[in-house]
Amino acid sequence: MLTVEGLHVRADAVELVHDVSFTIAPGERVGLIGESGSGKSLTALSLMGLLPEGVTASGRARLGERDLVGVPESRVKDLRGRALSMVFQEPMTALNPLMRVGAQVAEVMTLHGRPRHEARERAVELLERVRLPEPGQIARAYPHQLSGGQRQRVMLAIALANGPELLICDEPTTALDVTVQKQMLDLIAEVAPALLFITHDLAVIASMCERVLVMYGGRVVESGPLRDVFTRPRHRYTQGLLAASRLTPRGTRLPTIAGSVPPAGRFPSGCVFRNRCPHATPACETTPALTGDGHAHACWHPAD
Ligand SMILES: Nc1ncnc2c1ncn2[C@@H]1O[C@H](COP(=O)(O)OP(=O)(O)OP(=O)(O)O)[C@@H](O)[C@H]1O
């Protein structure tokens, strides 16, 4: 559905993204991972036609039959927020602080031609779909009256408003606390028609995506099904990333158990890696992820 071929992004003479190619099939969830500055956001922004001033993209990117790169702004604008939409890391900067959230959800629909009264009704339905309590009341609130997690749900409602074919999420849960993160990730996984998910966090990729692209220095250095990349990383950068991921986001080093599954009960319930470890056994209900060396286990516990 999305085909990216030989995408380059430049700022003046400096090439920031080099020759990036990948595809996303309908319904597929693809993770884009890499260290800070590796070019993940610029790759996503070039698909959205939202590159900062002075930064340009070349190459080919198509959503179905529609070109996304090297086409007039009016054409990309028509696709943006409709066929293709994006959720950013910090909802407070993306939302208008002076406008009620229901009106902001409705606006993205009226911009694409839906009558105002219909858009207002649909906005409340969307707020309900992203599981905001009392959606009618939330629709009348201003962004500062909501929590960070609620604001991010509003952003998701905006992204879903026109029934996109592809949702791009750039670190959508980084600013949220760990429990809220898990709920948000579950929601995104449930509602995304197809997903390009950008994060630094391998554990999040493992819980969300079927395929992963690893970026380093502006290039995709490795890609493949999640299990292959996680169990047999080929690039040294990916190997390092996987080794580093033994630290949980909370900074606790979890037990490393060479060549075996962890004893039952060692890992708390609610583990996001459930059923993903190739060593899974019935005794290992909350299965940890397999890290780079093929033996050690690491785990991320959103609830503990
Ligand atoms: N407007 C700009 N002008 C010049 N260089 C830029 C601009 N925006 C980003 N860059 C550079 O492009 C490179 C890739 O940036 P990008 O934001 O895509 O990285 P990233 O992988 O998304 O990082 P992070 O995870 O920190 O968001 C970086 O070296 C960055 O400094």
Topology at a glance:
Blueprint: E1 2-11, E2 14-24, E3 29-34, H1 40-48, E4 55-63, E5 66-67, H2 73-79, E6 84-87, H3 91-94, H4 101-110, H5 116-129, H6 135-139, H7 148-160, E7 166-170, H8 178-191, E8 195-199, H9 202-208, E9 211-216, E10 219-225, H10 226-231, H11 236-244, E11 289-290, E12 297-298
Parallel strand pairs: 3-8, 3-9, 6-7, 7-8
Antiparallel strand pairs: 1-2, 1-4, 4-5, 9-10, 11-12
Helix pairs in contact: 4-5, 4-7, 5-7, 7-8
GO molecular function, one term: ATP binding
Keywords: ATP-binding, Cell membrane, Membrane, Nucleotide-binding, Transport
Membrane topology: Peripheral membrane protein
Note down, in words, how this protein is organized:
The protein has 304 residues and is of the alpha/beta class. The protein has two domains: 2-236, P-loop containing nucleotide triphosphate hydrolases (Rossmann fold, 3-Layer(aba) Sandwich); 246-304, no CATH class. Helix content is 32%, strand content 23%. The protein contains eleven helices and twelve strands. The strands form three sheets. The chain has a six-stranded mixed β-sheet with strand order 6-7-8-3-9-10, with helices on both faces. A four-stranded antiparallel β-sheet has the order 2-1-4-5, covered by helices on one side. Strand 9 (211-216) and strand 10 (219-225) form a beta hairpin. Helix 4 packs across helix 5. The radius of gyration is 20 Å and the shape is globular. The model is unreliable at 247-304 (pLDDT under 50). The structure holds adenosine-5'-triphosphate. Adenosine-5'-triphosphate is lined by residues 11, 16, 34, 36-42, 52, 55, 200. Pfam families: ABC_tran, oligo_HPY. It is found in: Cell membrane. GO terms for molecular function: ATP binding; ATP hydrolysis activity. This is Dipeptide/oligopeptide/nickel ABC transporter ATP-binding protein. Residues 2-242 form the ABC transporter domain.
